[in-house]
Each structure stands twice: as structure tokens, then as C-alpha cells.
């Protein structure tokens, strides 16, 4: 009876243990209940088509094409036809084996991605032989396609979201795509649309059993908005071609609207290489390239503007009254005060317009000193601060607010910086005289220079440069892009500057003679940007025609010499292309196209 | 005794519990068939199960009609036939899920191991029924173990681990028939030691064993000087260890020295006591040495004897490796299904987890998930209560048997049902490794239901004489 009792005790204790565990699982512990709802419902996401991007003439810059992800249900795999897979997907047997290795120990119904972004042609082959590939199936994916290889830095690219994005923004789920640069990034919300969700009851094999409550919780997908970019596809392509084998950037703006007609950063990259199945490999190649093709020089690389900055100093002098159009100056080849500033041989004396035409350094040293020693201000420091405010109104030392990500502000030295550098009151106009000719503690992006040209072309105002004209059905973009911005200089002063710029391209001894286009009144200003990275950058700003300008352009060609040498002809070819639709100066075009500045470095 | 058909009635309480379990099983199997519409659709599992339930009940009636002396007389014949079937399975069996444990006979497929359990129960009962048989001579021990181990070994050869382990349950019968309770304690201790060795650092285990041994010595040999001597041995060893540590400049942890000191103290004490002590000291010594050896052999057994999938299941159960994708997938889904049932369950036919194929083997080995999901804690409680009632009633019935054969057989039935019931439910809730044995009377599976029915009703027949 002793044994009998013990056996019953054991049975009852075991039953008690089982019941305690069941009580814990079924009544107390909540975690298994939550999992059960996730398990049984299947949230089928309907991915909306991403918006298409057109150029200003209605030509497609980016569109979508359908690709297929080939998936495996490991449990249903039967006799894998490796040879067949190799032929269909053009893989080597080693690659196929490698992919299968990645599947690990997964042998159930959870999907495994065999191959991503298979082209429709390959997919058709796969479908033809589908009976040979038991356990394989496909999922439709849309991919970006670029009809022309232009505007990589403008358009940007999309990529699968990573965990940091998912943690920041609950909209995104693993496997979603997001724009990570260019228009794709800045207009992500408009382009992506809204995902739709269908809720189904499913079983563990992901087999859908039925829609949950007849689709009560379902939401429809909203397609992404199409965008019309202000880019002129032909002009963009031409400008990119001109910049081949050169480092630098071009920005072309329509002055009357602030719309960007072309924005080139050279070297450019083909956006298509970041869209296909070799994306990762290609991306690594671009990221490691020493010429930094992914770096958008036009908006991210501030450089000293050189003599192009004389235009602003001149206008401020006129506005302040410390300079008049009649002010003349003798130039003996240099500015003799302080450490001195060298000039180059040109006619002398020069007046205001001529000073722009021949780009006289001494003239602007005097002009700048007069601005700083203006009796209106009690100290040089206050005068510099007032000057800097005008510079900022002109669009320098701040982000202009272009609708592209990562725009750099550039710099213009402030009084406090010099106080720190020289000590308070230990500096005078001569210490900082290089600012007069756009050198020293000053850096501007090509976009800011183009905007400066647009301000002068408009005689005093601008619209914030933007690269997208409209979204969806003629929907306007953000309101600030339609507001007139004033540069703080009276309209009457601009005629003298414009005239000087015109003379620079046409007058005898004008520095910008290469920018002259027969039949068009071009206004331009050269600049030579001294920099610590080697040979001077060649800079040029211009607009045309002189009356009712249609286009303002800024060009920076890195390490190529004086502004008149390369930047001016490149800019004028862009003008000619845009205004005339073709090029008559084929010699100059050939010369620029054949110039390779990369090999000489 | 006259040779006429006996028409004694069975114990109705057991029959009622049996019918309740089979009916409840049928309902749950029906519920797992998500697209089930026709109740009597014989292409579906529930239809087949219904058919088998009818066949089983019919067989039960036949069992009740057959002369009860048939079983002791033909016990050995049945046993040998079962062994033959097991061998046949090894040669001509069908392999399903890496176990070659099924035989195809025309339209039905069954597991001879189920018949082997029944046959072993009969053969064991017959052996104990022999005149003057007692578990005291080595020959009798050998016969007993042979009867159990022979079919068990054959089932193991089929790689059907679950069914083979069921034979271990006969230890309960042996216990009832006079096996020392210490053997059971020893077995439980061995298993516990095995599991602890996997879970905790070696040093803890050795320290634990040493502490237990020391306690035993202390309690049985109440000598204060003994304790002081042990402390001195320990202190000397520890000091030697520390000197060695500094002399050699090694960075062995202090815990190792503590364990070593304790080990030395016990070992020296034991050796000094061997010649002057009573039996208990021998046991202490054997316990100490065996445990230490076992602990050291665990790693070897674990890495070399067990197969990877066994290791995965054990690791998953012990929580060493939480893996809801591979080995743990089944148990995880099973726990989710049972856990989602809450107190009252989702209601008959309203389970989502088991209905939608999340739980593998949901109508057979994991049928308890459907019970847990659709009937909640109330349902789980009812099933466990029914089983406990059945087992206790069977023990009461077994105890009232006048014939030893019947009593032993009764305990065999209790042992087999208890093992199946415990392990099956424990594995669905993650308390035991998944070894794939069915829940008696409830799991889908014709041959399983049929053989459990025959197993039970033979005992009811044997018992019916006592009414």
C-alpha cells in the first residue's frame, strides 16, 4: 500500500505541475496572446507606384519598371535543378550554392529570397520552366529606370530602408524603399504615395484563408505624385557633356522664376547603376572614387568666389554711396597699401563699368576700404557687420533653401571672427582687404553664384532657386518658392553693373571675351578662385540676354586657372545651347569637349 | 470454471471516462480540419478517427467477450509476435520523419511499437505471475529487464526515440512489485544531474555533490572532530592552492580552489572512514564517485551520443538556446496556441492557431494545443482531471485484483498511460523535449487509438471477474 500511495502522489504532483504551467500560460502570461494575433492575421501591403519625374519639357527623367524577386518556400523545395537555375538566371553553380547556403537551416514555410530584381526577360524564362522549380515563386517589385543618363546628383536614388530609418519613422517596414539623396529624398513623401493594407486571415504556410471581416480594415494604396522638374533635360545633358573630364559644377537658373534649368556636378554618375541588382557593388565603387561623384559639388562645395564677388562689392558701394558710377581709379598694376594686392595689366584709369570689364583689383580695394571706413558707422567693425548683412541678403553665407538635401551655407567672415583671429580692434580694412576681390575668409557655392547672377539679371530680386516646378495635377510646391526676395540694393544701381558685365564680354580688354555669343548680348564676370587645393579654380557668372534675361549661369571648373580660360567658354556654350537650341561656335565646343583636366592632375 | 462465454460488465466509471476522452478527441480533431464541413467525411482525419473509434469500441466488446484466461496463456505468444513485427518493421517498414517505425498492411498503416507496449505489458504480467517469482535473484532481474529492453531496443533501432522511452515507464510497475524506491530516486537524480550539468558551471555541480556527501557523512557519523578534520583538510588544500597560484603566477579562479578543497576534504574523509564504518559510508562513497563521473561524462554523452536534433530539443527546452525558428518553432507555436486560449478558450471551432496550421502535427502529437486554444484553461483542466481520475481509478482497480497477473497488468496500463499523458502535455507547453508520442484516446491516429483501447479493455476484462 506504501508503493500505491507514492505512485498516486507522483501522479497528482505531476498533474499539479502541468496545471500550474497551463495556468501561467493561459491566464497570467500575456505575451503569447499578442503573438497569436500577429500570427493569424496577414497584413498584405499593397505598394503604390512611386511617382514619375518629368523634366520641364515633359520628357521622363525617372520612371518605374517591373522586376521580380524570386523567392523560395524551403519546405516545398524538391530536387533543386541547379543547372536549370544557372541557365535561367545566368548564375554560376557556385553562386547558386552560395545562395542556398544563406538559407541555413530554414526548412519550413517562411520565405527566403533567392534572387532580387530579376528582369522581366529572365522572369519570363523562369515562368516557362516553373514546373521544374518546385518551391520557387516570385514577387513583383518596381524599380527605378532612367531613360537618359543625366542628373544623378539631382535625382538621387532610392534604397531599402535600414533599421535606423525604421526606428525613426514607423511608416517604413523592412523591405520598403526610401529616397536617400536628390529629389528622391527631398520629395520622398510626395513620390512614395501611401501604402495600402489588406488584412487576411492566414495559416502558417502564409496561405490566405479569407479577407478579415470582408475587408473592413483594408485601406487602398495612394499612388505617389508625379513631379515636374524645372530641369531642362537637353540642357542638363549638354552641360554634363561639357564638364566631362573636368571637376566642377554648373548651375543654370531661369531668373524670372528661380527655376533651376540645369545643375551639374562633375564627375557625374549614372543614376541607373544605383538601381539595378548590382547596386551595392556599384555604390561602393562610387563612394570610394577619389573624385567623389556622389558629392553634389554645385550645392555642397563652397569655394572663394574670386573676382565674381566684385559685382556684389560694387553694388554695395553704389548703394552706400561710397562709390559712384563715375568714380575712377588709377591702377599701377597693384594696390599699394597694406601688404598690397597685385593686379594685371589693363587700361588705366578705369571707371566703374570698366572696372568690371577689366576686373581691376585695385579699384575694388579702394571701393571696399571706402565701404569699411564709411563715416556712417562708428567703427570698421560695425561697417563690416553692416556690409556682411548686405552680403547675406544677397544670398551668401546661408542656405538659399533649394529643394535638395544637404545644401551648404558657405561662409563670409564676420567681425567677431576677425576679433578672435587678430584680437579685438587689432585689425583694420587693410587686414581684410582680400574680401574686396572675393578671396580670403569667404566661400560660396556655385548655386549661390548662380543666384547672384540671377539677382543682377533681375536687377535686384530673386526667387529661391528650386528644382521642382509642380507636383501631381499642377499642384504647387512649397509657397516660399513663389515669393519675390529682394537683395536690398536699389534697382537703379544694377544698370551700371549690367553694362560693365556686358562690356566684359564685348569690350576691348574685357576678361570674358570667350563668353561672347554672336547675336546675343551676354553679361558676364570672370573669377579666379585661389584655393589651397592646387591650381586656381576657374569661375564665371553670366546671364543673357542683357534685356529680359532668360538664363543665369554660374560655372566653376576646379584647378583650371583664370575665370576666362575654361569657366567662361563652358558657361557661354550653356547659354548658347539654351537660347539658340544649338551651337554655332563648334570650334569652341570641340575644344571644351576635348579638354581633359583630370589627366593633368 | 466452465468454458463458456463470460458476459461480466466492465467498470463503468473507467468506460465513461474512456468514452468522454474519445468523444472530446473527436471534437478537437474535427476542429483542426479547417475546411471540414461533413462530419462523416472519411477522406478527412476526423472521419477516419470516427471510423476507428467505432472499430475500437467494437474491438473492446470482443475483448470483453474473449475468455480472460486467454491473456495469461497467450501472453508470451503475443509478445514474440510483437517482437517479430518489430523486426519486420526494421526490414520492410516505412520511414516517416526519419523514424522507420511504420508498417503498411494493405489499406492501413500502423506502428508495431504500439502493439509492442501491450505485448510487453502482458509478458511482464505473466512473468510476475509465475509461482514464487520475486525481484530478488539476478536471474529474475535479468528476465524482467530482458522483457522490457528487448522490444525497447528494437524500437530504438527504428530511431523512434519517443516510443522507446515509453518502456522506461514500466519502472513504476517494478516499483509496485518491490523495487527499491532508491532506484527511482537514483534515476531522477541522474536525470537532474544531467540537466544541471548542461545548465550550470561544473564547479557548482561538484560543490553541490560534495556538500550533499558531507551532509550525509555528518548526519550518519555524528562526530564533531570529524567536521573539524574535514575543515582542516579543506583549509590545507586551499592554502596549497593559493601558494601554487602565486608561485606559478597563474590566474586560476578562487572558486576552483574552493571546489578543490571541498573535494579533497570529502575524499580524504571518505577514504579514512571506509575501513571503520557502516554501509551508509559505502553508499556515500559510491554516490560521490558516480556523481562526479557522471558530471564529467555529460559533455561526452551530450556531444557524441546525442544527435543534433536531440540536442536542439533539449537546449530549447532548458532555455539554453531560445530559437523560435528551428527546433523551438513547434513548441513556440504550440505555446502561442495554448496561451491564446485564455481562461475560457476561444470556443469550439473558433481557434485560429490550430485551425490555420500554425501548430505542426496539430491533430496528432499536438492535439492538446486545440484543447488549450479552443477550450482554454477550463478545458485543459478538465482533460487533466479526467486522466488523473482514470489513473487513480485504475490503481484502485489494480489493487483489488486477486490474481497477480491482473494486478501487474493493471499497473502496466497505468504506467503506459501516465507516461504518454505526462510527456505529451508537457512537451506542448515546453516542459519536456518534443519526442512525439500521442495523447492517449485524444490524438488522431487509428492504430494508436485502437491499441490504447485494447490495452485498457484487457484490464477491464481481467477486472470484471472481481465485480
Attribute tags:
heterodimer, A: about 600 residues, alpha+beta, Beta-lactamase, seven-stranded mixed sheet, 21 helices, about 35% helix, B: about 475 residues, mainly alpha, three-stranded antiparallel sheet, about 5% strand
Explain this structure.
In chain A, strand 21 and strand 22 form a beta hairpin. The radius of gyration of chain A is 33 Å and the shape is elongated. Among the domains of chain A are: 67-76 and 103-142, no CATH class; 233-594, DD-peptidase/beta-lactamase superfamily (Beta-lactamase). Helices cover 35% and strands 19% of the residues of chain A. Chain B is mainly alpha-helical. Chain B has 2 domains: 12-179 and 325-464, no CATH class; 193-305, no CATH class. Chain B is built from 17 helices and 3 strands. A 3-stranded antiparallel beta sheet of chain B has the order 1-2-3. Classes of the chains: A alpha+beta (601), B mainly alpha (467). The interface between A and B is large, with 38 and 45 residues.
Helix/strand layout:
The complex is a heterodimer of chains A (601) and B (467).
Chain A: H1 2-28, H2 31-40, E1 41-46, E2 53-54, E3 60-72, H3 82-89, H4 93-102, E4 112-118, H5 120-128, E5 136-145, H6 152-155, E6 158-160, H7 163-168, E7 177-179, H8 182-186, H9 188-192, E8 196-202, E9 208-211, E10 227-229, H10 233-242, E11 248-254, E12 259-266, H11 279-288, H12 297-300, H13 310-320, E13 334-335, E14 341-342, H14 352-358, H15 361-372, H16 380-393, E15 411-412, H17 415-422, E16 442-443, H18 446-457, E17 461-462, E18 468-471, E19 475-476, E20 485-486, H19 491-506, E21 523-529, E22 537-544, E23 551-557, H20 567-580, H21 586-594
Parallel strand pairs in A: 2-10
Antiparallel strand pairs in A: 1-8, 2-3, 3-4, 3-5, 6-7, 8-9, 10-18, 11-12, 11-23, 13-14, 15-16, 17-20, 18-19, 21-22, 22-23
Chain B: H1 12-32, H2 45-65, H3 70-92, E1 94-96, E2 99-105, E3 108-110, H4 112-129, H5 138-157, H6 161-166, H7 171-176, H8 181-199, H9 202-220, H10 224-248, H11 254-274, H12 279-305, H13 308-318, H14 329-339, H15 367-399, H16 404-428, H17 446-464
Antiparallel strand pairs in B: 1-2, 2-3
Helix pairs in contact in B: 1-2, 1-15, 2-17, 3-4, 3-5, 4-5, 4-16, 8-12, 9-11, 9-12, 10-11, 11-12, 14-15, 15-16, 16-17
Amino acid at each position: 500500500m506504501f508503493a500505491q500511495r507514492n505512485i498516486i502522489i507522483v501522479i497528482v504532483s505531476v498533474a499539479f505541475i502541468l496545471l500550474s504551467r497551463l495556468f501561467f500560460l493561459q491566464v497570467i502570461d500575456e505575451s503569447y496572446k499578442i503573438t497569436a494575433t500577429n500570427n493569424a492575421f496577414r497584413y498584405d501591403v499593397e505598394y503604390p507606384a512611386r511617382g514619375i519625374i518629368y523634366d520641364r519639357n515633359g520628357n521622363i527623367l525617372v520612371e518605374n519598371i517591373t522586376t521580380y524577386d524570386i523567392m523560395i518556400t524551403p519546405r516545398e523545395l524538391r530536387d533543386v535543378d541547379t543547372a536549370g537555375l544557372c541557365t535561367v538566371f545566368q548564375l554560376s553553380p557556385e553562386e547558386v550554392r552560395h545562395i542556398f547556403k544563406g538559407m541555413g537551416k530554414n526548412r519550413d514555410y517562411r520565405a527566403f529570397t533567392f534572387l532580387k530584381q530579376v528582369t522581366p526577360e529572365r522572369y519570363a524564362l523562369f515562368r516557362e520552366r516553373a514546373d521544374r522549380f518546385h518551391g520557387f515563386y516570385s514577387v513583383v517589385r518596381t524599380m527605378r529606370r532612367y531613360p537618359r543618363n543625366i542628373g544623378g546628383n539631382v535625382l538621387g536614388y532610392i534604397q531599402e530602408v535600414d533599421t535606423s530609418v525604421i526606428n525613426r519613422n514607423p511608416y517604413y517596414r523592412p523591405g520598403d524603399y526610401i529616397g536617400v539623396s536628390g529629389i528622391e529624398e527631398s520629395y520622398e513623401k510626395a513620390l512614395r504615395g501611401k501604402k495600402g493594407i489588406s488584412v487576411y486571415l492566414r495559416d502558417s504556410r502564409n496561405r490566405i484563408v479569407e479577407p478579415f471581416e470582408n475587408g473592413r480594415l483594408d485601406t487602398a494604396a495612394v499612388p505617389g505624385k508625379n513631379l515636374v522638374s524645372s530641369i531642362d533635360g537637353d540642357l542638363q545633358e549638354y552641360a554634363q557633356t561639357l564638364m566631362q573630364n573636368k571637376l566642377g559644377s554648373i548651375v543654370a537658373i531661369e531668373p524670372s522664376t528661380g527655376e533651376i534649368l540645369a545643375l551639374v556636378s562633375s564627375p557625374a554618375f549614372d543614376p541607373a547603376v544605383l538601381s539595378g541588382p548590382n547596386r551595392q557593388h556599384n555604390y561602393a565603387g562610387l563612394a570610394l572614387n577619389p573624385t567623389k561623384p556622389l558629392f553634389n559639388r554645385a550645392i555642397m562645395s563652397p569655394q572663394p568666389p574670386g573676382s565674381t564677388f566684385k559685382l556684389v562689392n560694387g553694388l554695395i558701394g553704389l548703394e552706400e554711396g561710397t562709390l559712384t558710377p563715375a568714380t575712377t581709379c588709377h591702377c599701377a598694376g597693384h594696390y599699394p597699401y597694406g601688404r598690397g594686392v597685385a593686379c594685371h595689366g589693363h587700361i588705366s584709369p578705369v571707371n566703374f563699368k570698366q572696372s568690371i570689364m577689366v576686373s581691376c583689383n585695385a579699384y575694388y580695394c579702394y571701393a571696399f576700404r571706402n565701404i569699411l571706413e564709411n563715416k556712417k558707422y562708428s567703427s570698421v567693425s560695425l561697417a563690416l557687420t553692416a556690409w556682411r548683412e548686405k552680403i547675406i541678403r544677397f544670398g551668401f553665407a546661408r542656405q538659399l533653401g533649394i529643394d535638395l538635401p544637404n545644401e551648404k551655407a558657405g561662409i563670409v567672415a564676420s567681425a567677431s571672427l576677425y576679433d578672435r583671429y587678430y584680437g579685438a580692434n587689432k585689425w583694420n580694412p587693410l587686414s581684410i582687404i582680400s574680401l574686396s576681390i572675393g578671396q580670403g575668409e569667404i566661400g560660396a557655392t556655385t548655386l549661390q553664384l548662380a543666384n547672384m547672377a540671377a539677382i543682377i539679371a533681375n536687377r535686384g530680386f530673386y526667387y529661391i532657386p528650386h528644382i521642382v516646378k509642380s507636383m501631381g495635377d499642377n499642384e504647387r510646391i512649397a509657397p516660399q518658392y513663389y515669393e519675390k526676395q529682394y537683395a536690398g540694393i536699389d534697382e537703379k544701381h544694377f544698370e551700371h553693373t549690367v553694362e560693365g558685365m556686358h562690356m566684359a564680354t564685348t569690350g576691348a580688354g574685357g576678361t570674358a571675351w570667350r563668353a561672347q555669343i554672336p547675336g546675343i548680348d551676354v553679361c558676364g564676370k570672370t573669377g579666379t578662385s585661389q584655393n589651397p587645393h592646387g591650381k586656381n579654380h576657374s569661375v564665371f557668372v553670366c546671364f543673357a540676354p542683357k534685356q529680359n534675361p532668360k538664363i543665369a549661369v554660374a560655372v566653376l571648373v576646379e584647378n583650371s586657372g583664370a575665370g576666362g580660360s575654361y569657366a567662361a567658354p563652358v558657361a557661354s556654350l550653356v547659354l548658347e545651347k539654351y537660347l539658340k537650341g544649338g551651337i554655332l561656335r563648334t570650334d569652341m565646343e570641340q575644344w571644351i569637349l576635348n579638354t581633359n583636366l583630370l589627366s593633368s592632375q | 470454471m466452465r468454458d463458456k462465454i463470460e458476459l461480466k460488465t466492465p467498470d463503468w466509471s473507467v468506460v465513461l471516462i474512456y468514452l468522454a476522452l474519445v468523444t472530446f478527441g473527436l471534437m478537437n480533431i474535427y476542429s483542426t480540419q479547417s475546411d471540414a464541413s461533413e462530419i462523416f467525411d472519411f477522406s478527412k482525419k476526423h472521419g477516419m478517427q470516427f471510423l476507428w473509434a467505432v472499430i475500437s469500441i467494437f474491438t473492446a466488446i470482443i475483448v470483453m467477450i474473449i475468455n480472460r484466461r486467454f491473456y495469461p496463456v497467450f501472453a508470451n505468444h503475443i509478445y514474440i509476435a510483437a517482437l517479430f513485427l518489430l523486426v519486420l518493421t526494421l526490414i520492410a517498414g516505412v520511414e516517416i520523419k526519419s523514424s522507420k517505425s511504420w508498417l503498411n498492411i494493405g489499406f492501413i498503416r500502423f506502428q508495431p511499437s504500439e502493439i509492442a507496449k501491450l505485448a510487453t505489458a502482458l509478458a511482464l504480467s505473466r512473468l510476475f505471475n509465475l509461482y514464487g517469482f520475486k525481484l530478488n535473484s539476478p536471474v529474475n532481474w535479468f528476465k524482467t529487464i530482458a522483457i522490457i529492453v528487448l522490444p525497447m531496443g528494437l524500437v530504438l533501432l527504428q530511431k523512434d526515440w519517443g516510443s522507446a522511452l515509453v518502456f522506461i515507464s514500466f519502472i513504476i510497475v517494478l516499483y509496485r512489485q518491490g523495487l527499491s524506491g532508491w532506484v527511482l530516486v537514483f534515476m531522477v537524480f541522474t536525470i537532474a544531474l544531467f540537466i544541471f550539468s548542461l545548465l550550470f558551471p561544473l564547479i557548482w555541480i561538484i560543490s553541490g555533490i560534495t556538500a550533499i556527501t558531507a551532509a550525509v557523512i555528518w548526519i550518519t557519523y555524528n562526530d564533531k572532530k570529524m567536521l573539524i578534520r574535514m575543515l582542516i583538510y579543506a583549509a590545507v588544500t586551499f592554502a596549497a592552492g593559493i601558494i601554487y597560484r602565486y608561485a606559478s603566477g597563474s590566474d586560476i579562479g578562487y572558486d576552483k580552489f574552493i571546489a578543490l578543497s571541498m573535494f579533497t576534504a570529502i575524499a580524504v574523509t571518505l577514504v579514512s572512514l571506509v575501513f571503520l564504518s557502516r554501509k551508509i559510508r559505502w553508499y556515500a562513497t559510491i554516490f560521490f564517485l558516480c556523481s562526479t563521473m557522471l558530471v564529467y561524462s555529460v559533455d561526452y554523452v551530450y556531444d557524441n551520443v546525442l544527435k543534433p536534433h536531440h540536442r536542439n530539443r533539449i537546449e530549447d527546452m532548458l532555455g539554453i538556446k531560445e530559437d523560435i525558428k528551428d527546433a523551438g518553432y513547434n513548441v513556440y507555436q504550440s505555446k502561442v496556441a495554448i496561451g491564446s486560449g485564455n481562461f475560457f478558450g476561444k470556443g469550439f471551432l473558433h481557434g485560429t492557431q490550430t485551425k490555420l496550421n500554425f501548430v505542426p502535427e496539430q491533430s496528432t502529437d499536438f492535439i492538446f494545443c486545440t484543447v488549450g486554444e479552443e477550450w482554454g484553461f477550463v478545458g485543459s483542466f478538465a482533460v487533466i482531471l479526467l486522466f488523473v481520475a482514470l489513473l487513480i481509478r485504475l490503481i484502485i482497480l489494480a489493487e483489488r485484483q486477486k490474481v497477480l497477473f491482473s494486478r501487474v497488468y493493471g499497473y502496466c496500463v497505468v504506467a503506459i498511460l501516465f507516461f504518454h499523458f505526462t510527456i505529451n502535455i508537457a512537451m506542448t507547453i515546453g516542459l519536456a523535449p518534443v519526442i512525439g508520442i500521442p495523447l492517449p484516446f485524444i490524438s488522431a491516429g487509428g492504430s494508436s487509438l485502437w491499441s490504447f483501447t485494447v490495452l485498457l479493455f484487457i484490464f477491464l476484462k481481467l477486472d470484471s471477474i472481481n465485480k
